[in-house]
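Figure 2 data, in text form.
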Amino acid sequence: MSASALNVKNLEAWYGESHILHGIDFQVANGEVVTLLGRNGAGRSTILKAILGLTGKRTGSIEVSGKQTIGMQTYQVAHLGIGYCPEERGIFTSLTAEENLLLPPEVVRGGMTLDAIYEMFPNLYERRASPGGRLSGGEQQMLAIARILRTGAKLLLLDEITEGLAPVIVQKLGEVVTKLRNSGFTIVLVEQNFRFAAKLADRHYVIESGHVVEVVQRSELAAKAELLNGYLGV
């Protein structure tokens, strides 16, 4: 395994008095794609937010490229080269697609150019002058992913990017994740769509009630299919 891009150990996190994460451990090597699988309410999205410092109290260890981030502010974590695509997408509806793309600052050198983004997302080029609120759900999701690529981030945290989207858009997003991985990005996917995630990830962490209850390597998918079905209800 190559050097670790993200190393999470014994991570616990709270929202107010609610204790959500109970000793999460997982690792992601540079250039890997891993998924956090589980049902709604399992704590998967909270893991991403805790990595960024967007929860309340958190304890344990979160190392990004070897740097401990538990004591850092969210903006400091972002400057280590992390891009976050939230489940709600966060599109500015009154700005055009291109204005949305131009809005984020480059936090690490080497962010993708507009031309490179439009090559990856031709739909966004065609809709570049359209307000964000006029884009389809699939186009908004593409825009939310494309926007973080301009920042220079190489570790991408993607939260439920396929939720509610048509199969043709889901297929396109799978192609995008594959291209990003082949371009050297490291990706953590929070997903319920196991059929989507299974083709893409090197490793799957199954989350239940704030714990990692199973780790499944890509090579083990067939042997552990029944076990995964039980956890995920698919």
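Caption note: Residues 89-152 form one domain.
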